[in-house]
Automatic annotation (TrEMBL), chain A:
Coiled coil: none
Membrane topology, from the record: Multi-pass membrane protein
GO MF term set: mechanosensitive monoatomic ion channel activity
Biological-process GO terms, alphabetical: cellular response to mechanical stimulus; detection of mechanical stimulus involved in sensory perception of sound; vestibular reflex
PANTHER family: TRANSMEMBRANE CHANNEL-LIKE PROTEIN 1, TRANSMEMBRANE CHANNEL-RELATED
Residue ranges with Acidic residues bias: 11-26, 182-196
Compartment(s) where it occurs, according to its Swiss-Prot or TrEMBL record: Membrane
UniProt KW keywords: Membrane, Transmembrane, Transmembrane helix
Domain of life: Eukaryota
Name of the protein in question: Transmembrane channel-like protein
GO cellular component: plasma membrane
Annotated Basic and acidic residues bias: 30-48, 62-78, 87-96, 116-136, 145-166
From TrEMBL, chain B:
Intracellular or extracellular location(s): Cell membrane, Sarcolemma; Cell projection, Cilium, Photoreceptor outer segment; Cell projection, Stereocilium; Cytoplasm
Protein name: Calcium and integrin-binding family member 2
Subcellular location, principal: membrane
GO cellular component assignments: cytoplasm; photoreceptor inner segment; photoreceptor outer segment; sarcolemma; stereocilium
Amino acid sequence: MPRDSLITSENDIDIGLEFAGDEDEVSSFQEEHERERHRAKRRDGDREKKKRRKGRRRRASRAGEREDELQARHEKREAGRRKRAKNYQESEGRERDEEEQAQIKTGKTAKTKKNIKNEKTRKVEQEEGEAEERNAKGKKKHGSAKKEEKDEDGGKCAAKEKTQEVKKKKHKRVVETSSEQETSEEDVNEEEDSEEKELRPESLSPEELEKLKEAVDERKKLIQGLRGKPWSMKKKLVTLRESQEFVEKYEGALGKGKGRKLYAYKVMMAKKWMKFQRDFENFKTACIPWEMKIKEIESHFGSSVASYFIFLRWMYGINMILFGLTFGLVMVPEALMGRPYGSIPRKTVPRAEEASAMDFAVLWDFGGYAQYSVLFYGYYNNQRAIGWLKFRMPLSYFLVGVGTVAYSYMVVIRTMARNANESGVGDDNSFNFSWKTFTSWDYLIGNPETADNKFASITTSFKEAILEEQESRKDDNIHLTRFLRVLANFLVLCCLAGSGYLIYFVVRRSQKFALDGLDTHTWWERNEVNMVMSLLGMFCPMLFDVISALENYHPRVALQWQLGRIFALFLGNLYTFIIALMDEINLKREEEKIVKFNITTWEASLYNSTVSENSTGPPITIQPADVPRGPCWETMVGQEFVRLIISDTMTTYITLLIGDFLRAVLVRFLNYCWCWDLEAGFPSYSEFDVSGNVLGLIFNQGMIWMGAFYAPCLPALNVLRLHVSMYLQCWAVMCCNVPQERVFKASGSNNFYMAMLLVILFLSTLPAIYTIVTIPPSFDCGPFSGKKRMFDVIQETLESDFPAWFSKVFSSASNPGLVLPFILLMVLAIYYLQSTSKSYKEANVELKKKLQTQNEENKKKNKRAALKAQMDLEEARKAASQTAEQQKNNNASLQDQEADEEENHSSSQRLYHGKNRRNPPAPVREQGLPATRAPVPRNYHHGNHGAPGYLPGFPRQSEPRMHRVPSLQRH
Amino acid sequence: MGNKQTIFTDEQLDAYQDCTFFTRKEILRLHGRYHELAPHLVPMDYTNDPDCKLPLALIVNMPELKENPFRNRIVESFSEDGMGNLSFNEFVDMFSVLSETASRELKAIYAFKIYDFNVDNYLCKEDLEKTLNRLTKEELTPEEVELVCQKSIEEADLDGDNKLSFADFENMITRAPDFLSTFHIRI
């Protein structure tokens, strides 16, 4: 019903405009026009009144000015009946009615309709205002009685107003009475309600209050969802203000009654909470670092390079938290509350190393004073509680180690799930071309060079897709390609094996050197392991790149192969390193046994000597530096990892400086005096290697996770490294890299990187957990010294710090009889969840299939319908041409007649209302299309001016079409 | 706050924050950018809603839009008059829709408007051709363009009218994996 009414009102406009155009010719209605003008003036006066009432609206004043202008124009033209057109001009500017008309014609109805609606609302308000004014002294009733009265009033004024207005009012009534409406109409509705209830909110019945409450809630919802509405900003702002005013006003009313203080309080708190949330949000976004830097890179290099930096920032965030954990709960307490440096042997540099402990070379290797500090595992004491806080140091150390890993798992998995949610929808290939067309441009690009590359890559991707589509891609020599691919994989495997062996060999050799003592060897021999690992990491990917040229894969596939190979290389290297380290640990433990034995004999001899020499004298105080001690394999592991990280970082930075910066400088300046074009030719500038950098970052993180337990300083070191990386790489990328020629999209590979990170996390926690669980801690260093296993600290805490029943419960809960069924239950739950998810997936596929067949059927049906419509159209055209001929015959007279009819119709209505002022409601309601109106010409006008695209034979069918867009836009 | 000069009142800033996906700081920055485009036209004081619009030519020259093949369409579809003159409100609106946090649905609506070159509420062949030619700098042959257009319409058209209505477009674009990541401009 309301839709119909909207359509009719549009017809009215068309007619109005049409008539206005014809009006100059029609001079016999001068009298009518005069009357009309008076009425219009009066109406403007009303509007002025109204304006005063709504004085705080700034817009109104502007509208007022326009109105004055319009008034002048109005009189000049004597176009009293162009009220509708004028309303347009009021909102859209006065020069634009032609354009508006055109817009209506071209089907841009959504916007126009909105305007009409707005205008209508305003007018109805206005009328109501009038009614209220008139009714001010009269008594007010509620509910339907009031409505009726207003109807009467409406009738009264309508009698003096023009018919169109009455009609509009009627439309409004329809809108008001129908409950299920579109949102904007609801707004209108509410506004009207508010107008009605404005006067005495406290005298409302409970149902009405309930309604009002609902309305207020709805408004609030509207305010919340406003930013997601596809409206113009102006409309949003107006709606916001109106809604806020509405809420403000009626929330107060709701809060006034008895027992509603709680409501008022809740509302107030909600408001405060909102404010706080907004401030917090502002604060949070202000805290996100490097936003502008990343934006700049994004606009230069597109989203793929930027994705690396976003990933880097994300890593930085995680490392910050890890750093906070280890720093706040392990390092600082030990440094502040633990026993100071030099108090016990494990906290002192041994006598033999004292001379060189402060040398830079030693410190750079994290030996000397660095080794005997909070940076490494060995420094921590096994005292159960330290300081006046009774801080449980060993327990804290253990829990932080576990917490680090647990937190990392949580974050990675959560991010992966979120990413999967975001991009998980698009897995099917059914929209290949449309996706390419509509989503391949990266809106972030703001650099001409990148844009050119992007254009080129889009073009190639289209060409490839077309080729694939035509299936004319012929494999010239499938055997050769196969052979080359096998050969390439073989070569890569050789490389991997070779690098693995090299590392193993080097680590073994370094152990031999270590046994000999470090001083006898050169710098290279001392740093061989790290250097070899870094160099392998640098050169092998290049080798892989060369090898992959043999394979002749599609670039995307080639990239994945390349990534996979680098991943395998890194992983292989890391694990060889770990295996070698394990060997070393075992060696150290052997050594430890010997030392332990030696210490007992040494202590015994010491004791004997003191006893024999002077038994009564004071006991000899032995300097802690002189006490012999074990090798402390944990610190050794920590040191290895720290050295690895340092050398890795150094290699990254040096490659960056030489490979990117120096190359760029040479290419730039030697280009002036060189035989060929260096910039376009061989060396050229380097590209930013996103995948390699991401992989490097991931492996670096893996090493951090692995080593963090034995070297609490690792997260701190990593934070520093990432921080420097951020600035250095940002600078390098902006100053010496060129955009990639093949610009890959980042989003697809986002979860790919995350999955890699997860794999690395798992693989790197494995050895750490293995060492913690199986190898007993050193006897004289670290927080767990003296225990059989590191996790004994939990048991110890349970026994001594918790009440007895708790440990009893714990021990009974951890017996196999309970644990096994529990594990079984978990396995069952996993199995159940997996099978349900599988069935859901199947159902999903089924539904998709159904949908597809449905679509195809629909297509067929629609095609048939279109054919039929075409035939009908032709018929209608024939008919139309016939009628047109008829029309031509009595064209002039018809137009006059039409105008006449319109006028008669309105005046008759006026007359009618004037006479029957006593009982108007029923006629007003039924007044839809008066019988006096000639329906045929209306239809023609609609067909010709309203929407030329719609078939004249299908006026009904065209209506939903016209509404389709706005109604879709609303959700 | 610590601004040297009041550009907006607090209420205005709050209203903008309610209506857009921006924070207070970003709105001020947007105003800065808008002001930068035409310092002599745009006032620094927006407390009384000055009526000022910048023409398309100025806005299109922003570095964020300069390389975009659809820059004119973007600006046009966000302007109230369809000609590309943007008031500050519309300017903010534009970047709000293109911001990272805007919902997929909202983005889809405006993407549709942008690709609808002839503003007839349908993406017809003509629109697609224009889109393609802008995407590839007219390096595809007419036959290829024809083929791609035909294929795209075939893929996405659900009601068989040989053009894409918004429903078709939305259905297609909401499944696109790259739409959210590429249809955004960081300001």
